[in-house]
Every structure is written in C-alpha cells, then in structure tokens.
Amino acid sequence: MLRRSLAGIAVLTLLAGCQQVEPISSESLAAELGLGYQVVDNRPDEQCNPDKADGFCYRFAVSLTAGSQGLPAQGWQLLFSQVSYVQSIEGPFTLEHINGDLHRITPKAEFAGLAPGESVDILMRANFWSVSNSDPMPNYLIALGDETPVVIQSSRELQDPETGLWQMPFVAPLTDPERQLKRTSDDNTPQATAQWLYTENQRLAADGSALPEAGLIPTPQSLTLLEGQALTLARGLRLADNDFGDLSAALARLAQLGLAQSDKGTPLSLSRVDGLGTEGYQLSVSEAGIEVSASEPAGAFYALQSLAGLIRLDRDSIPALQIEDAPRYGYRGLHLDVARNYQGEEVLYKVIDQMAAYKLNTLHLHLADDEGWRLAIPGLPELTELGGQRCFDLSEQRCLLPQLGAGDDPQSSVNGYLSEQEYIELLRYADVRQVEVIPSLDMPGHARAAVRAMALRHQRLMAQGDAEEAGRYLLHDLEDKPEYLSVQYYTDNTINPCLDSSYAFIDKVLEGVQQMHQRAGVPLHTYHIGADETEEAWSHSPRCEALIESELQLDSDEDLTGYFLRRVALLLQQRGIRPAGWSDGMLSAKDQLPGQVSSYSWDLLAWGGHDKTHQQLKLGWDVVLSSPDVLYFDFPYEADPNEGGYYWGARNINTYKVFSLMPDNLPAHAEIWRDRQGNPYQAADTQFALDGERIQGIQAQLWTETVRHPDQVEYKLFPRLLAVAERAWHQADWELEYQPGLTFNAQTQHFQQQEARTADWQRFAALLGQQELAKLDRAGIAYRIPTVGAVAEQNRLQANLIFPGLALEYRIAGGEWQPYRADAPVSGALEVRARSADGQRPGRSLPLEATGTAGQ
C-alpha cells in the first residue's frame, strides 16, 4: 500500500459552497489532471543557451488543468521524458534534469496552486527544434509528497479504433509554417500536404499498363515469358524430387498464398547443379511442372520464394515462364532495435518471414542499449532482472529509470526480454528461412543498462561480504566522477575501457551468446560491438589516467575507444567470431583493429558520408552501407508532423526514395537528393576515390525510441523494406555507373536516366500496389497505407496515390466516407484517405479545402 505523507493527506483544502472536498492523493490527481503539450516556437530567442546545440533551441509549453480537487501549491513533482535536453523553465517552477531524457518539475514557493478548472502553462526551452508530434513522450508522472508517482491519464497514448494508428491526444497539432513546421530559417523542406502529394504523385504516376504480365519483387536477373498454358494454382503442387532437405518454410508460404501441396498437384522438382553460386537459382514454370535448379539450399529456397512472388491473389494462375537469378550483394540486411522499446517475440517472427519472402538474409538484432538489456545471459541475471524493464524507481533497485515515456508499470508492453530458450528458437526459425541473426549488445557507449545492472550486482555481493566476486564484472570506475553528457544526455552510460573487469564481463557475455548459438545449431559468425558515440566519457577516470600513463600507445582519453575495440576484437577472434561495429567507432580505431572486420557506414551522405564509406573500403574492410539519408526507417515517410519518428538526418524517406538509391555510386546522390533541410548539397569524390572496391551490401535500420508497439514496427518497415530488398538484390539499368573523381551537385548533369528510372519505378509501384500489399495483408502486416494526394479546384476533386491499385475515399466536412470518383463535386473542408489492399483498414486522412465554383 502506498505511503501517505502529510502533503498527500491534506495538501490543499478547497471550499465549494462551504463543503470540504476529499483529500488529494497521487492517484486521484493523476486521474483528473488535464495535461497538454504544445510547441510554441522553433526559432531561437535571446534566452537560448549559446553553448548548447549550436545555439538552437525551441520553446514548448506543458499546460496543467486542475480537476475537481485542484492542484496543490506545494508538495508535488511532475516527471516527464523529453528527448531534447530541457535548458530552462519560466515561472514559479524549478526544473531538474535527472538523467537521459528524464526531467522533473517542482513548484517554487510563489506558486499559488490551481483551483478546480484553472490552468497554468509551464514554458520551457529545449535543445535544437521540434517538428514532429512524436517528439514529446507519453506517460507524464505526478506524485504528492513521498508517494509513488502515477501516470497522468490524460498523457497516455491511445489507439484510433478505426485506423489502428497510435496517437497522443494531449499533443497540440503543429500547423504554423514559420514557428512550428520549420527547424530553422534555412529549412526548405516542403510539407507533405494533400496538394503537394498530388503534384509529386502525378510526376511518378503509373497507368494500368505498368503492371507486367508476370513480375516479382525483388526483380530477378532475367524473366522470360514462354508459350504454353499457365500453371493453375487450384491444382496445387506435388513435391516430386528434392535434393535440398527441409524447405518447409518456403512451401508454407506458397500454401498461404493459394498454392498448397496436393497428391494430384503439379510436380515440383528441385535439383542440385553446379555453378549457380550460393544463392543463385533457375526456375521454370509451366502447366506440366515446376523445375528448380540450384547449387545450394539457399538458392532452392529463393526459387520457391520467387514462385510465391509471382502469385497474384486476384488471379488463379501463373504464366509459363523461366527465371535465371542471383543476388547483387551477399549482405542484404535489416537492423532492428528491440533494446529501446521491446515489442515482443511475435513481431520478430513476422519480420523474419517477410525478410525471407523478399530475399533479405541478415537480421542485425540490437539487443542492448541505454534503455534496456533484452537477452538473458547465463550467470548474469541482473542484466534482465533490472535491465529488462523500466518503471519508476530512482534508486534503480527494481528497474531502470522510466526513460522514453515508459511510465510507472514494470509490466508495460515496452518491457521484456528474450530468455535463452526463446533466443535459441528464434535463431532456428531464422536459419531455416536463410536469415542470419547478428546479435548486438552495444558497447562501450550506449551501455547504461549493463552498467547499472553490474553496479547492482556489485552492491548485492558487497553486502554479502564477497568483494572479489563483486568486482569481477564491474563496468564503471568507483573513483570516477564523470562530467560528460552522452548524445542522449546520459551521465553514466559508458563501459569503462580501463578496467579488466569490463573485459571479463564482455567475455562472459560472448560466452553465453556463443553457447546459445551452438545449442541452436546456428554458429555465431559475426558479433556487432556497437562502438559509437563515446566522446569524453572517461576524462575524469583515475583508472584511465593510470592506464594512459602505463600504455605506450595511448596518449589521451581520445585513444581509449580504439584501445577498447582492439581488446574486444581480440576476444572475438579467439572465439572465431568476426568483429563488426558502427563506422565512427571503427574509424577511430582504424590503426588498432586486428584482422578482417565489418564496418557499418552510417554517415550522412549530405555531410560527406561518401568519403567515410570510401575510406573504410580503402582500408580493406567489409563495408555495409547504412546511410541515414535513406536507410533509417525510424525517420518519417513524408515531411508530415503526424508521421512520427526521429528526423535528425532526413524528414522524408518514402518508398520511392529508397527505390532510387544507387548504392555503388554514393556521391551521385548530391545531384538528385537534398540535405535534411531540403537544400542542395555538393559531393566531391576527390579524397578517397575508389579503384574497384565495393560494398558488401546494404542494411535498413529501425531504431525504436518512438516505436512502442509491434504494429508500429510493421508500419515503419513496410512497404519501405521491399524497396531495400529490390536494391540489395537487383542492380537497375538506370543506376549511374561509378566514375572516380567526379563532383556532384544540383547543377551537374551526370545522371541522365530520369525517364528510365521513372518507368522502372512505375513497374515496381504497380507490383507493390496491385500484387504485394495484398500478400502483406494476408500475412497480418500492418504496413503503412500511403497518404493521398488531392486537389479540389473549381469544387471538383482529383486524387492520386504513390502506389496504384488501392481504393481511395473522401468525405466532406466530417460527413460519411464515400468511394472516390474523379471530378466528384465537393465544397468547403474535406478529407481524403486510402484503404489497405484488402479493403479492411483505412489509412490516415489528410485535409484540404475545395476552392472555386463548380462548373455546370
């Protein structure tokens, strides 16, 4: 039972017609208090701190409206997550930064409290800017006196019952073009209004002829239609010969799409031949039979996935044809962050199924970060007992701090982890679908969950009098008084590289992970260290000062990241595991890394990222392209504040932009794309021009700071992930061939394949809208339904969509939704939206205003 302080029992006595109201508790206050959030102005004023965020800051207001019991003058605290560090607060309130994104507000003595129905606006300034309605976090907490904080009900997320989309009703819409929708005065990003989308969609529009007679995603090397009768799906198929063992996962997808196994079905023959490579295959389809040739099981598996890809759910046959195919890159990946917010096992299985369907072969699984540790490690139970959940416990004895708006409930859907057996089963599930799982437990930075868990272990064992065991896996210097703030504003999120106990911990973790892979029968080939964002974390550590003094190769704490990576890489190599990491950390250690390594290049192209990628290639590393400009799927599809997600690198990454990526010619994008503020940039390929070096592949990234639910994972990934599959498997004829030494900008004209690219996009978009989205519906994937482009001139409605084939709807002034028809008469305010391919789910609507007078 919660403790009741004097402040909580009789903090405020209010009179209402000479009647005394009931005493206030945290629960009653949280149930009634109205909370609102509004961005006031993104333009910095004279009170912005010039030493933070390059002088950029924005103003926002949190409004509190008292319920029937009012709000006490004193004795309460308001806790909230704000991803941008809050610099200052105005009025009779005190602001405290606790750690990370967690802040606290308390009233000063001059605050007079609120009577029932009264409101107060608390004005604050935070770093940088806010142009997305997902920037504020849900689940504000309030507490009276020393009571346990409770989530304010009006600050919770809600799911729209019609669209299924998650919303935060307490957040005021962003509508003002200058004050709210622009980052800076130089921001020229156009907002994705219905009118703007209409023009963009017209530019890329496909007619009905764009859908080929037979096509699939990703595009094969060659597909030839043959004369003869089509293969009838109704007959099913009969596995006549199979040289490749278990292909049940691919056969199950065929059955799901209507081509099931039958004793009287069309014969399917799978034959092993030499010379087609690990993932290459040949596929022949006719009424008489289906013949697959491959050299390895992966090729046979992908042949069956191509057969499934040819199916259209509105057609009962597949034309007679022949395919010869092999992938462009050996690495075709997805990075999925389950550390920030844990979305559960089910979505992992669903994602793996779709990766296999579209021939993506690597799941880079991000299992630990500052906000959570999501994999059980034998012998280190604190990692998941503490690090597997967030709730309100400032002492962090039961759970981590409630970062990212986690609230007060340890059973919240954002909490959880994979047990040993669950991870083993996941590995096996992925393996039979030709998907390799690369685990990542981020270190030395982004490691607060581990640091706090091992601190709790140290505390527990010291209390038991076992000092030797207590220090065995300690990750922080007990004598250190750190003064850094990480990129996410943590003061204690970095493993100390100067402690032998840090490496004992890492080896213990590696041992546990490797043993789980061995038990699964799926060897651990690559481990992703992380190794990003560790600046100035050890500048006050006595242990590091001593290490720098004693090690000849260390001159300052700036060398410690390289020292750490070298030691961890050696641990991995001793276990026969390849080290991998993010490019910034790997480049900081480029002269210290032993043997072959994999580097994931995540530098913005608009900030010279092509040079960083080329530099890594010139070092002889295996490089996986992970550019935020186009491959960060936590970023919004369109520049629309309702899309949600982070946007530090780009405000709009729609499926077309992913499709238009030319991975082997990175500087060329300066000619066809813009920077994160919608402005031209220049890329000069002069510093590290390539001479035949080539990336290993590409990888999409989904970071989940703002993704709290499984259906949000699906929304963010699909259908963009299909465009990643297209570019990773197939090199388009329109891609500009790389030539060293060129400079690209908005005025250069090296790229002359616009028409060919548009025609190819129209084919891809037609396949997506008229063939593949229906399959995602059948698989239960809550993909993003595109927002509709529309104009209503002369009171006549015209609407279009980035993908053809989906049903469009409109309604006038809040009336009933009705099917769209061209030139429909409209007037006043209206909305437009699309529906899913199966018609069961509406997408988000956009408003517009009819103009003019309709002709007679």
Automatic annotation (TrEMBL):
GO molecular function terms attached to this record: beta-N-acetylhexosaminidase activity; polysaccharide binding
SMART domains in the cross-refs: CHB_HEX (SM01081)
EC nos: 3.2.1.52
Hydrolase in keyword set: yes
Region of interest called Disordered, as start-end residue ranges on this chain: 834-856
GO cellular component, one term: membrane
Statement: the UniProt record of this protein carries the keyword Secreted: no
Domain Chitobiase/beta-hexosaminidases N-terminal: 31-196
InterPro entries from the UniProt entry: Beta_hexosaminidase_sua/sub, CBM2/CBM3_carb-bd_dom_sf, CBM2_carb-bd_dom_sf, CHB/HEX_N_dom, CHB_C_dom, GH, Glyco_hydro_20_cat, Hex-like_dom2
Reactions catalysed, as given in the entry: Hydrolysis of terminal non-reducing N-acetyl-D-hexosamine residues in N-acetyl-beta-D-hexosaminides
GO BP terms: carbohydrate metabolic process; glycosaminoglycan metabolic process
Keyword entries, A-Z: Glycosidase, Hydrolase
Gene3D superfamilies per UniProt: 2.60.40.290, Chitobiase/beta-hexosaminidase domain 2-like, Glycosidases, Immunoglobulins
Class of enzymatic activity (EC top level): hydrolase
Active site positions, chain numbering: 533 (proton donor)
Homology family: Belongs to the glycosyl hydrolase 20 family.
Protein name: beta-N-acetylhexosaminidase
Source organism of the structure: Ferrimonas marina
